[in-house]
Design a protein that fits this description.
Elements: H1 9-41, H2 62-74, H3 78-96
Helix pairs in contact: 1-2
């Protein structure tokens, strides 16, 4: 970048990189907040996660989603932590709901 003679180009690149990282993190928090809220509405998560303001801002699930996001990003065992959470969720869902065959499948 310095060979081009544009001194400000590295700063622009860094700004774009930081902006995209912030955007990805914000999207992750938004999606996990809505997921926790949806699970709470279906009765698969605690009821306090359903709390929201009159304008629809989710105040019950937002702090928990943000905390999980931070823990996910700073954990050195991120992949194994995600795998453990996935297996636990799968185990509890299978235990809570009886298995049903999809249409066209033999049970």
């Amino acid at each position: 970048m310095q060979n081009l003679g544009i001194d400000v180009l590295p700063h622009i690149t860094n700004a774009l990189l930081v902006t995209s990282i912030f955007s990805a993190g914000n999207t992750y928090v938004y999606a996990s907040t809505r997921t926790l809220y949806g699970l709470a509405l279906e009765g698969q998560a605690p009821k306090f996660l359903r709390k929201c303001t009159k304008k629809g801002v989710l105040i019950g699930s937002r702090p928990h989603a943000a905390l999980l996001t931070i823990l996910d990003k700073v954990s050195p065992f991120t992949a194994s932590w995600r795998a453990a959470c996935f297996l636990c969720c799968l185990y509890f869902r299978l235990e809570a709901t009886p298995l049903k065959a999809l249409p066209g499948m033999i049970a």
